[in-house]
Amino acid sequence: MATSWVNSAERIGSDLHLELTGPGGRRAALIRALREAVRSGRLAPGTRLPPYRSLAADLGVARNTVADAYAELVAEGWLTARQGSGTRVAERAEPLLPAARVPKKAPSRARGPRHNLTQGTPDTSAFPRTAWLASYRRALQQAPNEVFGPGDPAGRTELREALTEYLARARGVRTEPGRIVICSGFAHALRLLFGGGVLRGPLAVEAYGLGFHREVLAAAGVRTVPLPLDEHGARIDRLGRERAVLLTPAHQFPTGGPLHPARRAAVIDWARARGGLVLEDDYDGEFRYDRKPVGAVQGLDPEHVIHIGSVSKSLSPAVRLGWMVLPERYVDAVLAVKGDREAWASVLDQLSLADFVASGAYDRHVRRMRQRYRGRRDRLVAALAEHAPHIEATGIAAGLHAVLRLPPGTEASTVKAAAWQGIALDGLAAFRHPDTDMAAGDGLVVGYATPSEHAYGPALEALCRALPPP
Fold it and tell me: In the prediction, which pLDDT does 401 show?
């Protein structure tokens, strides 16, 4: 029996006829018909399909029949499904067009991996759209006229006041609004501090860290000196003649784990003795699962620590907002580098974030995501226990990623095997400082926050297939 339905909301342009014929009942027939519609190009990549109820009514079938068909096609990769976005034809599904309609030189289009397990980004599908929109509306309605003029390079007072209260309560930071300067993220903070000449090198950094940050520093003419790591974090006793050190004390990136309390005290003693400075990257400070909260090093000595944070992982990298909590002696110099007006961070976004924090919506979002990411971490550990018990996951008490420890000599081949499985991830060696003689062993850095909920299970299955045997 042939049945048709019209998807006018998507402007397909004509009725889409689905032939519900063949063996296996209505569910199997619907799956075959949808596959053929995608394969032939009648349903283009990105096309949104009707809701279960609408399509079921148009076809005269049970709602569960449509739901089951959609679910199977999602699992096979023909369709994608996201909460709030509906069910769509997968972008990677290629329609097979008749030869006469295929151009001689079809334009190439780069495709992303099927499974994204890279570190450093949150689950973008979990952005709190409703709560953020409410904060944006309140901020816009209450904003004084001056908001729509040139922005203050220090940042909006409303946001600096909200951050003062939040950072003191959640991270143990001791400051006041006049010592906070708003920026567009951690890399922007580095550019202001070093590119603007507020600070100069050499700079001690952890032997494993983000290469992008080292590139930013190198572009500013700063030489970085690697600091070895062990199970207690950075080896503070190995600091040399440098006058500043960059650390990730809340959760060392990427190896995991907080800086030991004795070393926190030691780095403050070092800074006081040398007139030095600690740059604190508050990486993953808000996401902890199996340990007590670890406060900011800045709370030990606000005059010898620059505390740098952002919402790129706790909220979204699309909200280009971060902050520097500065010793008083650096505030004027940083503002001089920024210039007479705010050129980077949207003033309206600053006001929205101020409301989002002050209203408690930010706390609620962090708590909700902490539970979600803990569940993701637990699923990763369970999958390894079942399919690859010889692989240990470390650095998992906090953060948004885990390090999977591999047998010696297998990292490069495992990264390649992961690529064959359509997985994007990094090997541990990718984060190693080029001048260090320290080796942290073979491993994979697996970001478990990045995939959406429906994509995480298939990503774990593909990851386990890529891991080396015992």
Answer: 94
- As a whole number of angstroms, the distance between CA 289 and CA 378 comes to 10
Instruction: Supply 211's token pair.
Output: 């290469």
- Whether residue 93 is predicted with pLDDT greater than 80 in this model: the reply is no
**146 Cβ contact partners less than 8 Å away, ≥ 6 residues apart:** none
Contact 281, 239 (CB under 8 A): no
CB atoms < 10 A from the CB of 12, how many? 14
**The pair of three-digit structure tokens given for residue 288, joined into one six-digit string:** 């902890």
Which tokens in the block code for residue 155?
A: 């940042």
Dist CA 355 CA 131 (whole Å): 10
CA dist 344 and 183 (Å) reads 7
User: What is the per-residue burial (b if ≥16 Cβ within 10 Å, else e) of 320-331?
Assistant: bbbbbbbbeebb
Buried/exposed 216-240: b ≥16 CB within 10 Å, e otherwise? bbeebebebbbbbbeeebbbbeebe
Q: What is the DSSP letter of 24?
A: S
Residue 390 CA to residue 370 CA, distance in Å, equals 27
What is the Cα–Cα distance from 324 to 202, expressed in whole angstroms? 20
Q: CA 193 to CA 338: how far, in whole Å?
A: 10
Q: Distance between CA atoms of 396 and 257, rounded to whole angstroms?
A: 8
DSSP-derived pairing of the beta strands 16-19 and 203-206? unpaired
Handedness of CA 181, 184, 189, 192 (dihedral sign): negative
User: Is the bond preceding 202 in cis, omega lying within 30 degrees of 0?
Assistant: yes
The CA angle 221-438-424, to the nearest 5 degrees, is: 80
Cβ-in-10-Å burial (0-12, 13-18, 19+) of 363 comes to middle
**pLDDT for residue 383 is more than 50:** yes
Q: How confident is the model at residue 19 (pLDDT cuts 50, 70, 90)?
A: low
Structure tokens at 130: 């409703």
- Which two structure tokens, joined as six digits, stand for 42? 């009648």
Q: Report phi then psi at 92, rounded to 5.
A: -85, -5
Query: Burial of 100 by CB count in 10 Å (0-12 exposed, 13-18 middle, 19+ buried)?
Result: exposed
Residue 441's contacts (CB-CB under 8 Å, 6 or more residues apart) are 405, 406, 408, 428
Q: What six digits make up the tokens of 178? A: 């006049």
Per-residue confidence band for 213, with pLDDT thresholds at 50, 70 and 90: very high
